[in-house]
Write a structure and sequence with these properties.
It is a single chain. By secondary structure, the chain is mainly alpha-helical. Helices cover 59% and strands 4% of the residues. The chain has two domains: 201 residues, no CATH class; 80 residues, no CATH class. The protein has 14 helices and three strands. Helix 3 packs across helix 5. The radius of gyration is 23 Å and the shape is globular.
Length: 329
Amino acid sequence: MASSIFYQFHVNNCIVDTQLLDHFRKAGWGLEVNEDQFFTKYKWPDIKLSKSIIQFLDDEQDNNSDFEFAIELLGCYQLKKDYIEEGTVILFYEKIKSAAERYIDETRSTTSLEIVIDRLTTIVLIHELVHWLIHYVSPGVCTKTPVGTRYKKFDELEFHEGFAQIFTHWFANNKGGLYFDIFSWLVKKQPLQYHSYNKFLSIGVKTHSHAITLMTICKLLDIQSMDKALKIAEIYPCKDWATFDKILFDPFKFQALLNMLNYQEKKHIFNYIIRRRPGDLSDYLILKKKEKKSVLKIITAILQNVNIYRGDPSYEGICESLKWNYLGV
């Protein structure tokens, strides 16, 4: 059975999964590789099949306790402690086969077990590939150290599962047919964290581009919190990065963002501001007079948070430039 699933995955689903990665590549995420080194145009994590489940995953959270008929874990993404390699997506083929048999039994489906296994394997793979993207791959706007795969709070678990599940939801919806039926059945059997994608949908995150933009903002700020992700989505309801970048410095939005960020997250956003506008932020220094009043509020807000950089000459130079050009001090 293992070799059969692996063969079907390679033959039938590589094109499907590449379509998922296409969305991230278009958004600037670091996925491309040299074609002469790999058989694909994208980076990939290792993909393995395993008979035994990895017990420590989610055990500490005890998140299945309220689900009498909960489906066992069907796959996972593992990242080594040194974060050097891409990590591994592991598909638990016996659990997938068992879940497929259960689907056929409960829905009285006439579809063959082999086909149900194939569709379910693809659904699990899509979900785990998004985990890989969140944990390991850097968006184009910043280079980030990969994030570990053990979650300390349920809020973090909701964040990661919410993003992984929303892309899987769209995949199943777009494919329709058996993919949609299996996913809809599966979600009903999964614990609460797997339902958190509905929180994104409820606030209007309804496209790949919108979700990837929100993921990128969270990666930029090193945020792994569902609560903060939802607040950011409400402050900046941007469906693409260019729109976010354009309205980032809206006085009310930017101040609302600063108010919700902690010390480290403010440092990340200020780092991004400086990288976008090197030197003395010259693109702001040539703004028309009618625009300067609005921008002045923004600069003031930045300077109110600049004390975290005091003692760092590279930042002090920029701060002095801002003060001279906008605050007259």
